[in-house]
Amino acid sequence: MLWPSDHQTLQAAGELLSGAGFQPSTVALPDSFAATKLMQSPEALVALVGSDVWRNAAADVKTLANVLAKWSLEHPEDCKSCDLYLLVLLKSKLSPEEARQARLLEGDIKHVRKLVRTLSVREVPSQADALSEALRPFLPLSSIPALASEDPLGAIESELSGKKLSPELLEKALESFRSQGEVILT
Amino acid sequence: MKPSARLLELEIEGFRGFAHSQTISLDADAVLIFGGNGTGKTSLADAVIWALTGSLPRLDELLRGLRAKNEEHISNRYSSNQARVRLDVQLDGRLVRIERHGSSEGSTVITSVDGVSAQQEPWQALQAANLNTLQMAATARSLLAQDAMRGVLAEGPVELHAQLRKILGLHVLDKFESATVTARAKINAALKDVHMAGERAKDALEQVRRQKEKAQAEQAKANSEADLNARLQQTLQSTEIPFKLLSAELSGPQLITAICSDLEMMVAVAPALAQALEVSASTDASVNVDALRQSSDAAEKRFREASEREQGHRQLARAALQLLDSCCPVCQQPIDVSQVAAKLNEQVQNSASNVSELQREYNTQRGLLRSGQEQAERRERAVRALEATRSRWQQVTNATCVTVQIAEEPAVLRDLVSKVTELTKALHELYRQYAGLSNASDLQVIQAEQTMQALVGDIQTLWTEELALLAHSRQADQLVKVTREATLQVTTRALRRLEPAFAEIYERLSPHPSFTQLGMSHKVQYGKGRTTPLVSDPYSDPHSNTNKGIHPGIVLSEGQLSIVALSYFVAMALTDSTNPLPFLWLDDPLQSLDTLNVLGLADFGQRLRENRQLIIGTHDRRFARILEHKLTPRNPGQKTLLINLGAWTTDGPTVNVRTLTADQPSSLLQAA
């Protein structure tokens, strides 16, 4: 396992969210949740929880969710239009039973939306990507490359010119298709 | 990236479910349309499509299979007016107004840019290349209809590949590929025709060759005199005519000709011979003319003598009567003059009677003589005629090659003539067959040779043509093959560029806890490009299909599949820089989605609105509330409209448009 500590992981996650317009939240959590990182945007208050294994996180998650819910109910003016999220970042793969428990947790959307994401089995160079994938819902859309507006026939001509095909035949086929809409080879 | 273009306003009248005029603002980066089933949510989307393209492919497709395919489906059923839709679009800071009037029969459109008539079709104003592009852009890349949503995945790999290619604007490759297949099919059809023509020519050549061989055999057979002589002997032997051949020099056709000539002469002579025989037979050979003449002469002599005596008696009686007196001059005895006169007259009468009798006898004898003489003369003529005809018969037969024993009885002769006539006919037929067959065979051989020459020429021409077409066919095969590979390469390249977008959107919506990655595989199989959607679990065994990718239909639920379809659709909509349409319209995409999916979609919607005007329609009140909450503006510059459709009557639905503000309660999750 090459993942850094929970603190470093959450620090990296916080930096990613900061880049997406989030700021560290001023909401005060009990001391037992000191390791939890809280980030806030106009739309969302996100609590980031890091853990090596599911069993360490499972019990804390429900308690933390209740704390956040209680806070939101007690401070409606501070979180008037934002939604509450609790994101668990795990560094090891879930067993089937753990996955079932995680799914049950995610299905409970009362007060707080819970998300469980696994960061395990990724190599070091991909750690940032794995973290980005886990934080997807809170990040802007990636810069999606536009489809090149290439001439399809030009592209096909370029492709075909590298094939085992007589250049004259190719020229005849494309020329007849461009001018008459049909391929004439004879 | 803030969207610089959006739909601003929609005015609908007499269109689909909207009878009365309704003006509906769409001027927001997020628009939520809520309404129960049948309240006009889809009609709004249809109105945009119709204004832009003049047609509704969704309904055109639906009506295509129906009997009433010309049924009006544009104009409102309860409005007497034609349908009218006005659509205002903000595009690069300019106001493009598109107003369309018409029905399913046809429509007219007026387009203006910043209030100036554009004299252009809307797609030109929208900088689209053509109607197909616009329709594609509008229907496939901007508006996700609820039924079409799953269609992408419901299709098989071949159809999905083709559909994606179409959506990506690469359908010209389909046409090119199809054109190469058509060209190959034409060449192959021509090749088949030429090949079949060649085969037919070969068959015909073989048939003619056999005919020629048969004709040659017939020719050889017919030309054989030995065969002819054998058949002649057979024919002659089969007759009952007592004849014998005299000529040893002639044979074959010459012999038949000679025999026939002889026989025909015999037949010609036969009537005369028959008559002669009949006459001869009818004359009495025992008549003795000399005896008759002697009898006649004797009768004549007796008659003459009696006549002379009768004459003497008459003179004597006449003289005696003159001298007779009543008494004898000598003795003076009385004489009975009358008695004496009576006696004298009696004696004269007796003498005259005797003469008459002798004369009759003489006449009879003379008649018998004349008859005998006539008979003798007739017989003599008959005998001469018979001798002459016999001589002619003998002359006819003896002079040539055949002789037939003459028949002396007319009946036998008639029978003989009949048989000769039949034999002549048989010989003529034999000769005709011989001559006819020979000629026919010669002609057949000549004709067969000519036909064979022509066929060989045809076969050579066809063979040359077939070789040329075969070469073309191989080239066409190669072209089709490499075109398929190339179109797959081009398509795959385009789709590969989309894959990160597919993956990102799918990850955002995260419909499945394990199958968290979405991709596609592309390949050519059985000559066709195939695209298969794949979901995978990156944390599973790297060698398992679960890790490599498996069709989402196998492992995902209906709702999760809808997320997959949505991922593909949105990714393509966002990556298509050529799409001139500035909106992303999801028409009731929430069916089959559970709350988690809807929450994911709502979160995603918050991101989508940053890239493109987002319009979502739903009939589900609970989801509408989630979306209302999620799409409520949180940031400066954001604007959300809530269009509430309800209480549909024949006039149309009631339309209530409300602008959502940031001042919303945060009780959404509690409510959910």
What does this structure look like?
The complex is a heterodimer of chains A (186) and B (672). With 186 residues, chain A is of the alpha/beta class. Helices cover 42% and strands 15% of the residues of chain A. Chain A contains 6 helices and 5 strands, in the order H-E-E-E-H-E-H-E-H-H-H. A 5-stranded mixed β-sheet of chain A has the order 1-2-3-4-5, with helices on both faces. In chain A, a hairpin with a 3-residue loop joins strand 2 (37-40) and strand 3 (44-51). Chain A is elongated. The mean pLDDT of chain A is 83. By secondary structure, chain B is an alpha/beta fold. Chain B contains 18 helices and 16 strands. Chain B has helices at residues 41-53, 57-64, 122-125, 131-142, 146-154, 157-167, 171-222, 225-237, 252-282, 289-323, 337-399, 410-509, 545-548, 552-555, 558-575, 595-608, 621-631, 668-671; strands spanning 6-13, 22-25, 30-35, 83-91, 94-103, 106-113, 116-117, 143-144, 243-245, 402-404, 517-525, 528-536, 583-587, 613-618, 640-649, 652-660. A 6-stranded antiparallel β-sheet of chain B has the order 2-1-4-5-6-7, covered by helices on one side. In chain B, a hairpin with a 2-residue loop joins strand 15 (640-649) and strand 16 (652-660). The longest helix of chain B is centred in the C-terminal third of the chain and has 100 residues, at 410-509. The two termini of chain B are 31 Å apart. The interface between A and B is large, with 60 and 72 residues.
